[in-house]
Design brief:
This protein starts with 8 loop residues before the first strand and ends in a 16-residue tail after the last helix. It has 9 helices and 14 strands. With about 350 residues, it is an alpha/beta fold. The strands form 2 sheets. Strands 8-9-10-7-11-12-13-14 form an 8-stranded mixed beta sheet, with helices on one face. A 6-stranded parallel beta sheet has the order 3-2-1-4-5-6, sandwiched between helices. It has helices at about 20-30, 45-55, 60-65, 85-90, 105-120, 135-145, 180-195, 290-300, 310-325; strands spanning about 10-15, 35-40, 55-60, 75, 95-100, 125, 150-160, 200-205, 215-220, 225-235, 240-245, 250-255, 260-265, 275. Bound molecules: NADP nicotinamide-adenine-dinucleotide phosphate. NADP nicotinamide-adenine-dinucleotide phosphate binds near residues 15, 19 and 77.
């Protein structure tokens, strides 16, 4: 049974950084959500966060939150490098989990979390909020209905100007830094939303002195003959646009394609059709749609969301692994250990 007697879903928040605060601010506005606990690596941060958002329980360690039976779902908002440990701890203790993107460092870790959730019959979802965004869902429905014919190509980019100092998590290999996992996950997930898992890919990157990717470009290919060109950067602000070209037309998503306020459908031989966000859906950056999807699924007794299916998350993680393999980015925990027996 999920929720309080009056039907509100009880959230726990794990970590107290930037996106945790943005998500908490959006949850506070949802009448059927209640944040009942927060955990941080430090008691002081947990208490300050709890005070800021009116949260009754503040824990200075993760175990207490994972073990809190009065939490229906934990939102994991640590850097990617800690997603496996934090989400795994919560699932092992019987909590449902919404875990930030990139879901984990690599597909192996993602597979472990998915297996654990499925074994325990618990809800697990990647916080790929783009997939829950009403206009992105509209775009997908149009493409699936054949509005532009057979998809031939996708282009998408996400680059931030920075500069990010070497001390920033985006530059830190130990925290899964680099453009690909943080930003490139959006263009890759967008392409895979429309085309599924690619058959093959090529990729090229520019690496930082720390060994993370400053910018990466990849060309993904499908058996159908479709291609997707994806680009991400942490040292150049790109337009953050997407376009999907089909055999009978094209859809352009200008400016912030993963949280659009409009897009334009060009059907061959017809006037362009503009689709605009419904103001009732709230600010375009709102994370309420993913929160609502989690709460809907929990109330319906579903263990995964049809909007953000775990097999889709696993397929994206395999693509990110394949891109990293081509560009030579490997994170510290992934280093091949020397075989001591042979040293
Ligand atoms: N959905 C979105 O739009 C969106 C936007 C931004 C980021 N994200 C994702 O959210 C995650 C966090 O990003 P952020 O921008 O919020 O980062 P951030 O501001 O650096 O916050 C991360 C928090 O995680 C905890 N933390 C820091 N280092 C850690 C470590 N080594 N091990 C465990 N916990 C650690 C800290 O909280 P405590 O001190 O309380 O432990 C820190 O405040 C990333 O995976 C990122 O890709 C998503």
């Amino acid at each position: 049974m999920v929720g309080t007697a009056d039907g509100r879903v009880r959230w726990g928040i794990l970590a107290t950084g930037g996106i945790a605060a943005a998500f908490a601010a959006d949850l506070v506005d949802l009448p059927d959500a209640e944040i009942v606990a927060v955990a941080s690596r430090s008691e002081e941060s947990a208490r300050a966060f709890a005070e800021r958002f009116g949260i009754p329980r503040a824990y200075g360690e993760w175990d207490a939150l994972a073990g809190d039976e009065d939490v229906d779902v934990v939102y994991v908002a640590t850097p990617h490098s800690a997603h496996r440990a934090a989400a795994g701890l919560c699932l092992a203790a019987g909590r449902n989990v919404l875990c930030e993107k990139a879901f984990t460092l690599n597909a192996r870790e993602a597979g472990e979390l998915v297996a654990l959730a499925r074994e325990r019959g618990l809800f697990l979802m990647e916080a790929m909020w783009m997939y829950c965004h009403p206009l992105v869902r509209r775009l997908k429905a149009l493409v699936d209905d054949g509005a532009i014919g057979e998809v031939r190509s996708v282009q998408a980019d996400f680059g931030l100007a920075g500069p990010f100092p070497p001390s920033h998590r985006l530059r830190n290999p130990a925290l899964g830094g680099g453009a690909l996992l943080d930003l490139g996950v959006y263009p890759v997930s967008f392409a895979q939303l429309l085309l599924g898992e690619p058959l093959d890919l090529v990729a090229k990157a520019v690496l930082s002195g720390e060994g993370v990717d400053l910018q990466t470009g990849a060309l993904l290919s499908w058996e159908s003959g479709a291609l997707a060109s994806v680009h991400c950067s942490i040292h150049g602000g790109t337009p953050v646009r997407a376009s999907v070209t089909g055999s009978r037309g094209r859809i352009d998503v200008p400016d912030g394609f993963f949280f659009p306020d409009h897009f334009v459908l060009h059907r061959d031989g017809r006037d362009p059709e503009e689709y605009r966000a419904d103001p009732a859906d709230g600010p375009r950056t709102s994370l309420r749609h993913e929160a609502n999807e989690v709460m809907r699924a929990l109330r319906a007794g579903e263990t995964e969301s049809p909007l953000v299916p775990l097999d889709g998350t696993l397929a994206v993680m395999r693509t990110l692994d394949a891109i990293r393999e081509r560009i030579g980015v490997r994170y510290p925990g992934e280093a091949v250990e020397p075989d001591l027996a042979t040293v």
